Amino acid sequence: MFGDSWPQAQRYAALLGDAGVTRGLIGPREVGRLWDRHLLNCAAIGPDIASCSRVCDVGSGAGLPGLVLALARPDLQVTLLEPLLRRATFLQEAVELLQLTDVEVVRSRAEDLRGRSFDVVTARAVAPMSRLAGWTLPLCRPGGLLLALKGRSAAAELAEAVPVLRRLKAASWGVRSYPVVGVDTPALAVAVVTGGRDHRRPAGKPTEEG
Length: 210
Fold this sequence. Notes:
By secondary structure, this protein is an alpha/beta fold. The chain has one domain: Vaccinia Virus protein VP39 (Rossmann fold). The chain is built from 7 helices and 7 strands; from the N terminus they run αααβαβαββαβαββ. A 7-stranded mixed beta sheet has the order 3-2-1-4-5-7-6, sandwiched between helices. Strand 6 and strand 7 form a beta hairpin. The termini are far apart.
């Protein structure tokens, strides 16, 4: 799954289990299940992302799934979007430690990132889908893909978000299931394909909330 990046993936797991815990990014109880519940779970969505895509991980936190995707798929150009200073600092340190050249850390909220668009936008444990859609879909290029890892709540959150998706002119949506290596439970994500309209927020101009 991680190929030549396996040594880097091990270093990242060690970083999460050490600094990630002491700096409050990962709960102590998660250390024993970092691989099956977090790293492998996040890497499972990798095959659904087209080659050389521009990916934005919204609310990246400790780098899940953004850093994991960068390790599993070195062909991707990954932007880790994180508004909180301590988390953004951790992410920058991790990028430097792991020597990831096609990864950038941007300290910003999704709704404040203007004038940029991505092929794929990812998110995990950020907000309910009904709110998350309004933050993330404007970052997708026309025909782009949103992958929101949601676990068991995926179907219920998607049903609640349908009115928002329609308002944002999404082309299609559904819950996708991804097999996780060595784990019985699949990873579940809400997948939304954006419509043909460009929803990017113009640089320097606020958007109206509807």
